[in-house]
Design brief:
single chain; 113 residues; mainly alpha; 7 helices; 0% strand; globular
Length: 113
């Protein structure tokens, strides 16, 4: 399916199929698409859902979600990722979420000064 996306002729269909893949095998190809192509923004939600329902360990889910966080475009996507990271229940996930929250809170505070 990733080859169909790269060929260019069926990009929207290939992205839609990858974003609804049943197991976690399409997650990293989707992250690759998000990094290299503007079309990748449309598959962020599907990828987040795929990660949350995959059979991966909490650590694997956190690492994938952390990668996606830097590719998000909206606060709604960031919130959804943080909610999924909260489910990971690992120390690195806690540290990441805490640092992200502090950064966002400080930016809001700067705007009000």
């Amino acid at each position: 399916m990733i080859d169909a996306y790269r060929s260019g002729g069926t990009k929207p269909g290939a992205l839609a199929a990858l974003a609804t893949w049943k197991d976690g095998s399409a997650i990293y190809p989707l992250i690759e698409v998000m990094r290299k192509d503007q079309d990748g923004a449309i598959v962020i939600d599907g990828t987040i859902n795929m990660i949350s329902t995959s059979g991966w360990t909490a650590e694997q889910k956190f690492l994938a979600l952390r990668e996606i966080m830097e590719l998000t475009k909206t606060n709604a996507q960031r919130s959804k990722i943080l909610k999924e990271i909260d489910k990971c229940k690992t120390f690195p996930a806690l540290i990441f979420a805490g640092q992200y929250w502090i950064t966002m809170h400080c930016r809001r505070m700067q705007r009000t000064w």
